[in-house]
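Hi all, long-time lurker, first post. I run a small reading group and we've been trying to get comfortable going from sequence to structure in the token notation. Rather than ask abstract questions, I figured I'd post a concrete chain and ask someone more experienced to write out its structure so we can walk through it together at our next meeting. Sequence below, copied exactly:
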Amino acid sequence: MTELVSYQLDDGIATLTLANGKANAISPDVITALNAALDRATEDKAIVILTGQPGMLSAGYDLKVMTASPQDAITLVTAGSTLARRMLAHPTPIIVACSGHAVAKGAFLLLSADYRVGVEGAFTIGLNEVQIGITMHHVGIALARDRLRKTAFQRAVINAEMFNPQSAMGAGFLDAVVAPEELMPAALAMARHFKKINLKSHAATKLKVRKTLLDTLDAAIAQDQISGLT
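-- Answer (accepted) --
Happy to help. Here is the structure in token form:
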């Protein structure tokens, strides 16, 4: 059986690769595996690169779980929100190498990272929740409000506007867009840049900069557990 999240450590850089079927669905087991990989990266004091399969970072939460029952959906979203909060406070930099489509929770992975590089091509990036009949959760609203450009926030969250890689960079989902063959070299170049900075100062500064957001997410996680996805 293929690992849901593989872990490769090389010269202080940990590459985490999602591999959960064609859509790279974010399931409870994937979240458990991602948390375990982040635990390992913390122990290794490694810069993190998170990526997916060619053409797909993730199409979002596992729909089988999301439609099983309201409680199953709430439990999965809570775990995913807690993961996003963890990524935002991770002690070493997290780079997402977006290998293609990044939709719903896939796009929120981008909004939870320190640096995001995507690939050129006919790929879709964005938050389609209201398009598929899901009311955006409080954590999603707070995260998008903080990380997206002001001009794109309501278009992305309320209107479910989807972006191609270039317009996703303008909206705030990505920091750079490169040719597909340059994706991992670009991510590794940024990781090597991060290795030159003082990681203790990086971690402390990150927590200062994001304190208000992290506090807001803590309250939003609790609120979503009470109100559900309505």
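A couple of things your group might point at:
Residues 120 and 179 are 5 Å apart (CA to CA).
The mean pLDDT is 96.
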